[in-house]
Specification:
The complex is a heterodimer of chains A (271) and B (330). By secondary structure, chain A is mainly α. Chain A has twelve helices and no strands. Chain A folds into two domains: 50 residues, no CATH class; 211 residues, MetI-like fold. Helices cover 69% and strands 1% of the residues of chain B. The chains are: A mainly alpha (271), B mainly alpha (330). The interface between A and B is large, with 90 and 97 residues.
Chain lengths: 271, 330
């Protein structure tokens, strides 16, 4: 039994080290001086510790970090609000065919977006939003609706319908019941949906690179990829840039881990 | 009165209306347009929406392109490697962590952490780890493996990782044997070595997610079941292989479907890590679509490839959604 226990710990610690290795690579190389960045020293601790990589990376990426922020906040908020309303109807005001509509809506979460990309770009050009952050926000809101609806529907299903019925006996209408009764109960679902959307949209690459061709307006994931692909940039800057681009979602994860896990489980279409 | 009654009845539908209109346009309308574009002559910047003759010629051309054949092979191989690794490791970690060990939370949070990062960050870092001149290959020197190999008169070990064009376990001869018309295959069917690092990076990112799914499932298996199995004399291994893992089947299915959905449309990770690779060794349909639509202006070809991607993921997702809804209603 003792030996078994020891093996268990050994495996877990080895796994932990392997999982942390890429994080280690990012950190030690991000803090390295440009002059000591070389292929041989990749695994060594930085000596001396330098912030030059971060200041350079920040100079190059901060406009794009700002774009990402401008994109992600309204997209996450709007898609969550729409998802809450839809989820409320799909769970508490079912009608003939509502389940089918829900399934048709949900399908949108599972398609490879390549299959809508060209018409989307043409459409955004037509309404003059191509190449703008507003166009990107619209895109993220529209394609976010299916998953937020799913999250809220799954949450509301577990709230007893008697609460809704009691409110309607009191004469409250459907909308009134929503914001008087359901909304105050929905804070956990909002947290889950917002975190899920924040992470997804911040980490998006495909829409960013196709809807916004102008580097000036691109989100940080695209700027980071360009940085990493250019041969003239030292890779302490690239690693520092990767840390900067990862920081917002990493902080959300570290701070709100429990809700984060809840979000990913709802994304798994729990019946 | 009648009108009001109708409104009350359909208020729910009215709330849904904006989302339904958006879905109709942005999902179904756009899919329809993509499909239509794939049947047209639109293959330059000038829009040409006349239908091709024969109608399916773009698809026929595409399936005989060596590059697209390589994409199909790569998706297939990548999917097997990635799903095998991620579910295996995720399940293993979940079982280990389920053993009431101290610091369980710390381990779990670390294994799940990569899931919060973007595929671009993952790709940028793993690209350096698998750089042939640095990264992992330095360990072969550190650990003295290369010195030992040289002493034994062999070449030092320095894999080219994503830059290696080798295809191993080629099955072409077998295919020609089984299918004499198999000469339409323009490429070697086997495992492109360059895909292995990408599958490892994807596993790093998503095995924690698999672990979290399984941990949720394991938490729901009562200790009574474990005790009962133990009283029956089932050992640890028997307990897991014939009681617990079968009980986790629904979670395994959901997990594999989600991972399939990730691997069939994988784009950013490959884009950041290796691009198309040597001889299209790491090219995938998503990159093909992107390049045909946004670099080469071959709009009908890009659309056709995107429709193939859609069909491939629908084959997986639609039965799953139908099943989910059916079991919920019963």
């Amino acid at each position: 039994m003792k030996i078994q226990r020891l093996c268990l710990w050994l495996i877990l610690w080895v796994a932990l080290i392997v999982y942390l290795m890429p994080i280690y690579v990012m950190i030690v190389n991000g803090f390295r001086e440009a002059s000591s960045v070389s292929l041989d020293t990749m695994w060594q601790l930085p000596n001396p510790i330098s912030f030059q990589g971060f200041t350079e990376a920040w100079k190059m990426l901060s406009p794009n970090m700002q774009n990402s922020l401008v994109m992600v906040i309204p997209s996450a908020l709007l898609s969550s609000v729409i998802g809450a309303l839809n989820g409320y109807v799909f769970s508490k005001w079912r009608f003939r065919g509502s389940e089918l509509l829900f399934a048709l809506l949900l399908f949108g979460f599972f398609i490879p977006y390549q299959a809508i990309l060209l018409p989307l770009v043409r459409f955004l050009q037509w309404i003059n939003l191509y190449g703008t952050l507003a166009g990107l926000i619209l895109t993220h809101v529209v394609y976010g609706i299916s998953v937020t609806t799913l999250i809220f529907r799954n949450f509301y299903v577990n709230i007893p319908s008697s609460i809704v019925e009691a409110a309607s006996v009191d004469g409250a209408g459907m909308i009134e019941t929503f914001y008087r009764v359901m909304l105050p109960l929905s804070l956990p679902a909002f947290a889950v949906a917002l975190i899920f959307q924040f992470t997804n949209i911040w980490n998006d690459f495909l829409f960013g690179i196709t809807v916004v061709p102008n580097p000036q307006f691109q989100p940080v994931t695209i700027a980071l990829n360009n940085l990493s692909g250019s041969f003239s940039v030292d890779w302490n800057i690239v690693m520092a840039g990767a840390i900067l681009a990862a920081l917002p979602t990493a902080l959300v994860y570290i701070g709100l881990g429990k809700l984060f896990v809840r979000g990913l489980v709802s994304g798994a279409v729990k019946a | 009165m009648i009108k009001q009654h109708w409104l009350v009845q359909h208020k729910g539908a009215l709330i849904l209306l904006p989302s339904l209109i958006l879905t109709t346009i942005f999902i179904y309308g756009f899919i329809g347009s993509s499909f239509f574009f794939s049947l047209t002559n639109w293959r330059t910047l000038a829009i040409d929406l006349s239908l091709r003759d024969p109608l399916w010629q773009t698809y026929a051309d595409m399936f005989t392109m060596p590059r697209f054949q390589a994409d199909l092979r790569n998706t297939f191989v990548f999917t097997l490697l990635f799903i095998g690794l991620a579910t295996g490791i995720g399940l293993g970690l979940a079982i280990l962590l389920d053993r009431q060990i101290s610091q369980k939370g710390w381990f779990r949070n670390t294994f799940l952490f990569p899931y919060a990062l973007s595929f671009i960050v993952t790709g940028v870092v793993w690209r350096w780890i698998f750089n042939p001149e640095t990264g992992i290959n330095l360990f072969f020197n550190f650990l003295g493996i290369n010195r030992a190999l040289e002493a034994a008169g062999m070449d030092p070990l320095s894999p080219g990782w994503t830059t290696d064009p080798t295809i191993v376990f080629s099955v072409n001869q077998l295919l020609y044997h089984l299918w004499p018309d198999g000469r339409v295959l323009q490429i070697e069917w086997g495992i492109p070595v360059a895909l292995i690092p990408i599958a490892i990076a994807a596993t790093w990112q998503l095995s924690g997610f698999v672990m979290a799914m399984y941990l949720g499932g394991l938490g729901g298996i009562s200790s009574q079941i474990r005790d009962a199995a133990q009283i029956d004399g089932a050992g640890e291994i028997r307990l897991y292989s014939s009681v617990i893992i079968p009980m986790l089947n629904p979670i395994t299915i959901s997990t594999i479907i989600i991972l399939l959905h990730v691997s069939l449309k994988i784009f950013d990770l490959v884009f950041a890590m290796s691009g198309v690779g040597p001889g299209f060794a790491t090219d995938v349909p998503a990159i093909f679509v992107f390049e045909m639509m946004f670099k080469a202006a071959r709009y009908n070809l890009g659309s056709a490839a995107s429709i193939v991607m859609l069909v491939a993921s629908s084959v997986v997702i639609v039965p799953y959604l139908i099943h989910t809804f059916k079991t919920r209603e019963s």
